[in-house]
Amino acid sequence: INEIDDFETPEGSNNPNSALSELVWQVVSGHRSPATFLEQTPLYALCEFSERLGSMALFGPHQKWKQLSDVDKAKAGHVGIDVLRNGKQAIKELLGDTFIKFTAVHNPHRPQGALDQFYKWAYEKSSDDFEEILTFLREVISEVLPVGSEQIVLGKPAVRKIHSIRTASKASGIHPKTLR
């Protein structure tokens, strides 16, 4: 706990919980300015979602939550709330950037490979309290990752919105080298 008190937030505040405190206050007082697109999501689910977003942003998609220190978890929560504050586009960019960094080294055929621990966390959230988050994530994953219409994304069939070079070639009949 003492380590958390010494943690400096990016804005220069000494309280890493200030963003979380602000979120709690907004929810309790009836205002949902961060993540207004998740209006029906309970507070605990929003906090957990923000922590996992922040973990992926700070430590990458392969970092296991249980291996983080309390200070790192506090930092992740703070960063995740900032991502939520910046709205849908910020989350799309985070997921898209994560996918691009991963595919530079690996060649995944599924979002599970690129988003790893974040995807596993989301997949395990079967409670109705997380349904709004999962629906949003399915949409974002379909918009930023090349998923096939026959693929299952977070427990439901994907809707293809973008193609990889290979699938675009198959769909259009154009040679892959021409599409590059």
Helices and strands in order, then pairings?
Elements: H1 2-6, H2 18-28, H3 43-59, H4 70-85, H5 87-105, H6 111-123, H7 131-144, E1 152-153, E2 156-157, H8 165-172, H9 176-179
Helix pairs in contact: 2-4, 3-4, 3-6, 5-6, 5-7
Any overview of this molecule?
- With 180 residues, the chain is mostly helical.
- The protein has 9 helices and 2 strands, in the order H-H-H-H-H-H-H-E-E-H-H.
- The protein has helices at 2-6, 18-28, 43-59, 70-85, 87-105, 111-123, 131-144, 165-172, 176-179; strands spanning 152-153, 156-157.
- It has a two-stranded antiparallel ribbon.
- Strand 1 (152-153) and strand 2 form a beta hairpin.
- Helix 3 (43-59) crosses helix 4, helix 3 packs antiparallel against helix 6 (111-123) and helix 5 packs across helix 6.
- The radius of gyration is 18 Å and the shape is globular.
- The relative contact order is 0.11.
- The model is unreliable at 1-7 and 9-14 (pLDDT under 50).
